[in-house]
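Input chain follows. Return structure tokens only.
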Amino acid sequence: MINKFLTIVLILTGTALFGQQQGKYFFTKSGHIEYTLGGNWTGTKSIWFDDYGMLMRTLTESTSTVTVAGFTSTTAEKKLEIRKGKDIWVIDLLTNTGSKSDIGLQTGMGRNMTQGKSDEELHQMERKIITDMGATITGYETFLGKKCLMFTWGTTKFSQYKGIPLKSEVTQTGVLSLLETAVSFEENISVPASKFEIPDNIEFQQSGGLSEVLKGLESSGEYQEQEENGTPPGLSYERFEIATKSLNIPGFPYFMSDNSGGIYLTSYAKSETEQIIIFMENEGRFYEMAQGGEGMIVESTYSLDGHDAVFINITHEDDGTPTNSRSLLVRMPEHQAVLYIIASLPKSKSELEGIIRQIRL
């Protein structure tokens, strides 16, 4: 089961939602794209890339608003991501803090997949990846003078050119929540090397991302007992999937749901390093995980809407690599289950509670 579970995480980090290929993220050598953001978030996104996306700079300036159970929250973001080959830096320009992650494993695998392939072969590979992940290809359209492949994936619609999403529209419960539209695209241009320089005066921490956190849990034996504990006796996978696949998590589109090896999961992913995964399994796991452990600090034990809950800060992996992940566990005796979230970024307790409260089991 654990191999299947980690494969899902590698898919998240390797495809980055849009059929991108490690080794050749995009199937055109260089470019500059400007986007406008709409729906529940407003703002702009600017992307510069070279070497088929192995060098990439993404600057997002946005404000997002979400209302859950009558409560409205607004979040401002100014985030810079820079990828150089196997390394990726994610920087919060509002706090001058950031993280650096190594994605060399996925980069090497993708390079082997794309190396030496013609444009037509890459296009066929793109279509296969899209359909393999459960999306439906709906045709083509011309947008900004580019022939774009159109497909739907869950509640999301994409128009994609050579692996590059030029339009994406996420709808949840019939309401448009996220819209990203390219307004200009320069292709095969000369991109200054300065675009990929890391800013000074940023406080960085080394991070292995969510996949490394899960590997650490595997080696520590954290997941070895879930074969014995198994799925929650009081809830079917079908109900879990329906309840968790249409959540409103601004900036995080739905990715996939899975049921294997004694655990239910639904994942939402924003990028290689920003993922939120919701799990459900047998109630006995709550007592084990609620104790924390090496690299897992229990920050709060409390009652959430009448249920026992634990908020955990995941600080580092078994090998000592620092992380800045968060987890919220909720015991649900009515389903003989534990429901929990692992976020690969430092979401607050209230933010994770807002996600949990959307789930209607």
